[in-house]
Model the fold of this input.
Amino acid sequence: GIGISVPSIIHMSLEDWRRQTAINLDGVFLSVKHSLPLMRRTGGGSIIMMSSLAGLRGAQTLAGYCATKGGVRLFAKAIAMECASFGDGIRVNSVHPGIIDTPIWGKIPTEASGSGQNAPIDPEERAKLATPLGRAGHAIEIASGVLYLASDASRYVTGTELVIDGGMNAGGAVRQG
Done:
């Protein structure tokens, strides 16, 4: 997915809105649309949609990103109910990472960064302030959650969100010491 940061939604161009929606929502839609028939023919499976913590709560400068990731969250729930009604053996869930140390942090275009440039964002510094666990997550921690949802260990899990965010969604915590 992509995130486009703007100081206010009034600064986001329709072109940027549509680009972000095409990547973050249309891509998920097309993946599901074209994988479901094959999955149904082969007896089921697990669909895991990547959303974000921003799909569960707002973020001041990322309104468009939040809208797309919230859309992924509810799309997953709707498809989970569709699959359950078909009895096709397909489980559908979404994953909601928080601050994860990945290259996306260097790819968030901001108006303040100037034309064609990206503002440097250090995920570790941001996570120290924003997460109760006081650190950024790592890709392997997300992969472990995805592995769980793809495995038989989650065979009774569908239509839910797996939040992997160092406690951000739970609330704020003041570390002692």
Observations:
- The helical segments are 14-41, 63-86, 123-130, 139-150.
- Residues 44 and 88 are 6 Å apart (CA to CA).
